Amino acid sequence: MLRLGRIIQIASQQSRSRPPMRTQSIKSLPSLISRFSQIRLNSTTSSNNKAPSFLTGFNTQGNAITHQDASGMPSKQFQTKKPTTPGQRWLKRVPRDHLYKGKAVRRLTVEKRSTGGRNNHGRITVRHRGGGHKRRIRLLDWHRQEPGLQTVQRLEYDPGRTAWIALLRHDTTAKLSYILAPQGLKAGDQVRSFNNNNKDDDDSSSHHITRTVAIDVGNCMPLSMIPVGTIIHNVGLKRRGPGVMARAAGTYAQLIQTAETGYAQVRLSSGEVRRVPVQACATIGAVSNPDHQHEMLGKAGRARWLGVRPTVRGMAMNASDHPHGGGRGKSKGNKDPRSPWGVLAKGGKTRKSPNPFVVKPRPRR
C-alpha cells in the first residue's frame, strides 16, 4: 500500500509539472471562430451585392451556404422518400423547389385535346397512349425575333416537356413570353435577342464593324455572330425560322465552324455533325434540368398519370398478333427482333437516302 501510494504521488507531481498540451489550441479557438465569421460576413455581403463568391452558387447537395433570393438550380440533386410503400421505394425525382408554385399565364397557354393515339377514323395509329392528367400547352417563343432587353420573372414547370421554362417580361413593351430555360438562368437575369440586329444595318459597314454582341446564357442570335466552340441549344434549321434542335432537358450542341455567309457546322449531343445556315438562330447555353435522365417514376401508376399505357411483349401474344407470338414457351420462332409489322428492330436500315446536310453521322453501335 505504501509503494502504491508513492507511485500515485509521483504520477501526480509529474502531471503538475508537465506543461499543458492543448492550451495553445484552446487559446487559438476564438481567433479561428472570428476568422470563419469574417469569411461568412464577406460571403453574405458579396451575395447581397450580387457579386460572385466562392461560398455561394454551387449548392447541389444541400450544403449549408448563404441564402439566395432566386436560384436557377434545385436545392439538391435528387429527391427520394422513405420506402413506406412499394411505389416510394424506387421513386427518384429532381426537386422543383426553385420553380414557381402558381399557375401559368393563361393567355400564353392553349388547351390540349387528347386523342388517345387514334386518328380521324378512330383507329389506333400510335400505341401505348391514353388517359393521363389534363394539361394545357404552353406557347413558347421559338423565334426570338423581338429585340431589346427582357427580364426573367420566374422559372416554371411545363407538363409538355422535360426542361423548365422561363417567363420573360420585356423592359420596354412589358410584353410577356415564355422561352426554354437554359441551365443556370434564374429570376432577375436579363436576356436579349440579336436576331434583328443587322436587319436595317446591312448596308452600313461602320455599324457592322463596331457591332458588339453579349455572349451570355439565354441570349439568342444568328450562328454567324457566335464564336466557335460555344455551347448552344434551340438551334434553328432555316433563316429567321424557329429553333428545332437541342430542346430536350440537358441537351446542347457545340458550334465548330461558322462564317458570315453560307453554312455553319454544329456538333449535336449524339455526336452527329450537321450543316446549318449561318442565318439560323441559336441560344447560348445548355438546356436546363440535366438530371432528368436519371429520374425514376417508381411505379406504373405514375406513368399512367403521364398518359402512357402498358406495353405488352410480342412473345406474350398470339402468332396472329405479332411475329414473335405463338409457340410453346419463350420462343420467337427463330426470327430476328422486329416490330408487329415486320420491321427489323436492331440493325435494320431505316433511312432510304442519306441526308446531304449531315457532315459526320452519329456513331452507330
Order of helices and strands: HHHEEEEEEHEEEEEEEEHE
Class from secondary-structure proportions: alpha+beta
Q: What's the mean pLDDT score?
A: 82
| Uncertain spans | 20-30, 35-68, 199-208
Helix content: 10-25%
What is the number of helices? Answer: 5
Q: Give the termini distance in whole angstroms.
A: 85 Å
Question: Largest sheet at a glance?
Answer: 7 strands, antiparallel
Side-by-side strand order of the widest sheet: 7-14-8-11-12-13-15
| Proportion of strand residues | 15-25%
| CA radius of gyration | 30 Å
Describe the structure using short key phrases:
single chain; 365 residues; alpha+beta
Description:
Helix content is 16%, strand content 17%. It is α+β, with helices and mostly antiparallel strands and 365 residues long. Strands 7-14-8-11-12-13-15 form a seven-stranded antiparallel beta sheet, with no helix packed on it. A four-stranded antiparallel beta sheet has the order 5-4-3-6, with no helix packed on it.
Secondary structure blueprint with pairings:
Elements: H1 2-17, H2 23-48, H3 86-89, E1 109-111, E2 136-138, E3 149-156, E4 165-170, E5 176-180, E6 190-192, H4 205-210, E7 220-222, E8 231-233, E9 235-236, E10 243-245, E11 253-257, E12 263-267, E13 273-277, E14 281-284, H5 300-305, E15 358-360
Antiparallel strand pairs: 1-2, 3-4, 3-6, 4-5, 7-14, 8-11, 8-14, 9-10, 11-12, 12-13, 13-15
